[in-house]
Hints:
With 138 residues, this protein is mainly α. The protein has helices spanning 2-35, 45-59, 65-72, 79-96, 100-105, 111-117, 121-136.
Amino acid sequence: MADGQNAAQAASRRKRRRTLAGWLAVTAVLAGGFALLPRLYSPDPADISRRVVEACVQNMPAVPQWQADLAKHGLAGQGERVLEPYCRCLWEEPIRKLSGDDLRSLPRLSPQQQLDKLGGAEAFVRRQEQCLAAQAGR
């Protein structure tokens, strides 16, 4: 019985690691988007939010965990319908909370530091689950 629990815990840790690795990759891609902002540009959170949501919509289908997450929430085959509202839900609030200095510093930070600025890995995974659940309820 203990071996079964250990195996289940190990599988859960591996899944969590894969999900986090996927999100770190998405964060790295979004960091590239932030790098396009000129250094002297006074960042407008609404404009940055729009750009990040566009990048999410463009890049999310390439994340290996995306289809599995959709299926987990009963949204298999509905990726196109839920993608933009999901990305808005996922990114708009954390970006809105960042100061102008935070927005300017994001391109210079590592993906882990960027994730920390956006609320941390646990908050990000929670937000992901909430946003998928919201789309499943539609």
